[in-house]
Amino acid sequence: MxxxxxxxxxxxxxxxxxxxxAGMPAESARRVPAAVLERGRIGAASxxxxxxxxxxxxxxxxxxxxxxxxxxxxxxPDRDARAFEPVLAAVEELRPGVAPLxxxxxxxxxxxVFYGGDVHAGAVVAEQVVAAGAWDCRVGVADDLFTxxxxxxxxxxxxxxxxxxxxxxxxLAGLPVExxxxxxDAGDLVSVLRRLGLRTLGDLAALPAEAxxxxxxxxxxxxxxxxxxxxxxxxxxxxxxxxxxxxxxxVFEPAVDNVEVLSFSIRRTAxxxxxxLAHHGLAATEVRVEVExxxxxxxxxxxxxLHPRVFGAADLVDRLAWQLSGSTRSPASRGGAPxxxxxxxxxxxxxxxxxRFVPVVAVGESTHAEGLWGGSxxxxxxRGLAKVQGLLGHEAVVxxxxxxxxxxxxxxxxxxxxxxxxxxxxxxxxxPGRLPDPQPARVLAEPWPASVATDDxxxxxxxxxxxxxxxxxxxRTSTDEPWQPVAAWAGPWPVxxxxxxxxxxxxxxxxxxxxxxxxxxxxxxAGTAWWTEAGYD
Amino acid sequence: xxxxxxxxxxRARIRGMEQTGSRTGVELPTHPALAGLLQLRAGASYGVDSxxxxxxxxxxxxxxxxxxxxxGVGDLGAEAFAxxxxxxxRTVLVPDPAESWLEVTAxxxxxxxxxxxxxxxxxxxxxxxxxxxRLRKRSAALVALGDxxxxxxxxxxxxxxxTGPESGAGHGAGHLDGRHVDLLVRRGAGPxxxxxxxxxxxxxxxxxxxxxxxRPVTRLGEVG
Lengths: 537, 224
Prior knowledge:
The structure holds 2 protein chains of 2 kinds.
Chain A: E1 5-9, H1 13-21, H2 26-29, E2 34-38, E3 41-45, H3 47-51, H4 60-66, E4 71-74, H5 77-94, E5 99-102, E6 105-109, H6 112-115, H7 118-131, E7 138-142, H8 145-154, E8 160-162, H9 168-173, H10 189-195, H11 201-206, H12 209-227, E9 248-258, H13 259-279, E10 282-293, E11 300-306, H14 313-326, E12 347-364, H15 377-392, E13 398-402, E14 412-416, E15 442-453, E16 474-476, E17 484-497, E18 506-515, E19 520-526, E20 529-536
Parallel strand pairs in A: 2-4, 7-8
Antiparallel strand pairs in A: 1-6, 1-7, 2-3, 5-6, 9-12, 10-11, 10-12, 13-14, 15-16, 15-20, 16-17, 17-18, 18-19, 19-20
Chain B: H1 4-18, E1 45-48, H2 51-63, E2 68-71, H3 78-83, E3 91-94, H4 101-109, E4 114-117, H5 125-138, E5 141-145, E6 153-162, E7 179-186, E8 193-199, E9 206-207, H6 209-213
Parallel strand pairs in B: 1-5, 1-6, 2-3, 2-4, 4-5
Antiparallel strand pairs in B: 6-7, 7-8, 8-9
Helix pairs in contact in B: 4-5
């Protein structure tokens, strides 16, 4: 069993925080009907106010009509966060590694081992939070973050709701879809789900993941994972959004237009950036490199870089160089060593006036500390490959990934090492027209122009109804190869798809052809033109 | 809080470091279908003439969790490699190293115990010797697709027989399914070894000894 997630929720936190700062003791504050106004509407209301019918989203006038002694407070997100700090500190005393999710909501690894079970641990944490002044707090414990939060929302004040290990999906299935409204960025998702006839999270979880993903995008896909009980677990908690003051920048006066000079000068800033993070016990796994150039003052061009491990100073210098040269290096010249006197490879598009490193995701340094004798294999691999990337450019070192598709070239993708693959097609879909196994070991990046003819030399074509003009008798895989007799063939297999040609939407007929030398090829007929797509090498 | 398995791992590493100089001859994991034909050894170079054979060579170390690298191959069929036993999550490709192929291959030898290289048309003896020294130092093996000076062993496909599509006047029925691959393994000046592999559609390669016994002198296709 992996580590469990504990979530502590303090309901109506904006109201609690506002009354707190107004100097009202927590004990009496909870009996005061109060609400926080957000843009003229009720943003949050205390339990006492809700009893009189005050609801979130109500207009100020309507709320006051229903509850004349309602105490109205202004919204102040800063205040909410500030007031939550003592609560975080109180929980951190019990268990380090507390992740604040939003003001009023925090998560931590359940310290059940120390306190003999999740329920006892929850009680200890709740006691500590109450001692810190937050009277109404509820604790939820589950395998993943989303379920733990829902459990906390279902718990009674100062009580702990525990979802059994592996029971997340069953627990969530019965909850109404309205609970999604509590998530940030939910927008009007709930009303859409309701109109689609989905009443409970179980209904949503029962849909195929890819259907939810294509209808609601990445957020929907995340939600589907969460409601299926396979949301992000405790590992995700370690990642903290690092404070922005850890960003480092360097101004170049005068502007610099040479990557090598830039790489040399930025070194100290990169060192300071890494040292600054390390001072807080952090190391960056995702960094945004921002660049301002002459001629476009105030316009910042940034790119987020991921590191398979954590960023060191040299890695940052590399990423900056790749980012700058990536925009100038043409695909044709990529990888080629620059000829003597050729300046293009080290020249940037416009002279650079400012470079800034911003930490996006940082992790506790200890999780990535180097092992004895230089750490693990993957780390050595990351270093070695970074060397090759430094030589040829970031995109020149790739990892193959499989994806869904019909043609052999569509079914794979190359992802630069260290980046996450994005926008892959789902392999679980049926993909009608895809080739039966075995798959070709040789998939040509660019198809070769091929020829197929009957024994008496007439070209073989396929008409609109799929009928062939003749039986393939001989073929050549490219115009440079000699003709050879066909030993065996299979097809035609018509496929409608946009092919590699401009305009797309081409009708394609695939054939497998075996030559007398025993080698098999995948040929495709588009109109009257034959192409070699792949070889069963 | 060091536990016993950790200690064993560390001791193994110390032993690894104490071995001075080369560790040539250390056996690398090899695909079981090649047993008796070829044993991959650290520090050696091998020549193959087909991508499927290269995948088969990669499958041994890759199945044991090692990284593998492929240099200069822009037409790799990832799905076929995966089905032959190559773990794509620990595979890196440098499809177009251009002039820097030697530096890139040398750098990848540091990282992966098996590197597949499609060399440029002419490779000098000097370049091959440089790489061989690096291979010995890093206990890695090189698989060259095509000609390579000084190969420990060369694997060549001498015959291919497909099952699936109907030959001759059949009207395109069926599809490619499995294949018998006749192999010739040459090692130095010694006698060449012959073998036949059976590669079914799912990529589970094995030796086909029955086909080796009844190999026909000429194949029907050559009548064509």
